[in-house]
TrEMBL record:
Name by which UniProt lists this protein: Early light-induced protein
Superkingdom per UniProt: Eukaryota
Main location: membrane
Organism of derivation: Lotus japonicus (Lotus corniculatus var. japonicus)
Stretch list, region Disordered: 44-80
The keyword DNA-binding appears for this protein: no
InterPro entries, per database record: Chloroa_b-bind (IPR022796)
Sequence ranges of Pro residues compositional bias: 65-75
One Pfam family recorded for the sequence: Chloroa_b-bind
One GO cellular component term noted in the UniProt record for this chain: membrane
UniProt keyword list: Chloroplast, Membrane, Plastid, Thylakoid, Transmembrane, Transmembrane helix
Biological classification of the source: Eukaryota, Viridiplantae, Streptophyta, Embryophyta, Tracheophyta
Subcellular location: Membrane; Plastid, Chloroplast
């Protein structure tokens, strides 16, 4: 109310106009023009500190439906180094994956031969298993290194159930399985099955 009185009593706002009909002077009240892109601020005189409110410009009288937010940008594939020293580094992508893959194949092969022939791990190694182990190691090492030297990351080929983390965990469990199998056969003095 006080704001309206100050607006009405302001000397800049008060204007006098002469009517052609009766020649009396009447004070004219200032009415602000409402433009289409004018912003409107509403302030409250409530107790407490005033809170800043975002100001939204009024564009039209018709209701505007908000547009859906833009989709998030696709994550870029990290650049993979193809240098031999980076690929074969202690924390690089190759050593643990290659060892895990060889351990998975070795564990399955050792269990299959033990069930089929009744030979333990040590018997398999001494009965001509070393050339098979070396041949499989060379083939699987090269098969694992070729994509890494071409810049293809293991994570980029991971989908669904077959993720790179699952492969690492399976490789670690296969390594532990081979050690446990050999240790159990050594302590037992014979085959596990």
């Amino acid at each position: 109310m006080a704001a309206m009185q100050s607006i009405i009593s302001s000397p800049m706002i008060r204007m006098t106009t002469r009517s052609r009909v009766n020649q009396f002077t009447t004070p004219a009240v200032y009415m602000p023009s409402l433009r289409r892109n004018a912003t409107l601020r509403v302030r409250s005189m409530a107790e407490g500190e005033p809170k800043e409110q975002p100001i939204e410009p009024v564009t039209s009288a018709s209701p505007v439906t908000p547009s859906p937010p833009p989709p998030p940008p696709k994550p870029r594939a990290p650049k993979v180094s193809t240098k031999f020293s980076d690929v074969m580094a202690f924390g690089g992508p190759a050593p643990e994956r290659i060892n895990g893959r060889l351990a998975m194949i070795g564990f399955v092969a050792a269990m299959a031969v033990e069930v089929a022939r009744g030979q333990g791990v040590f018997e398999q190694i001494s009965d001509g298993g070393v050339p098979w182990f070396l041949g499989a190691s060379v083939v699987f090492t090269l098969a694992s290194l070729v994509p890494l030297f071409q810049g293809v990351s293991v994570e980029s080929k991971s989908k669904g159930l077959m993720t790179s983390d699952a492969e690492l965990w399976n490789g670690k469990l296969a390594m532990l399985g081979l050690i446990a199998l050999a240790f159990t056969e050594y302590v037992k003095g014979g085959t596990l099955v």
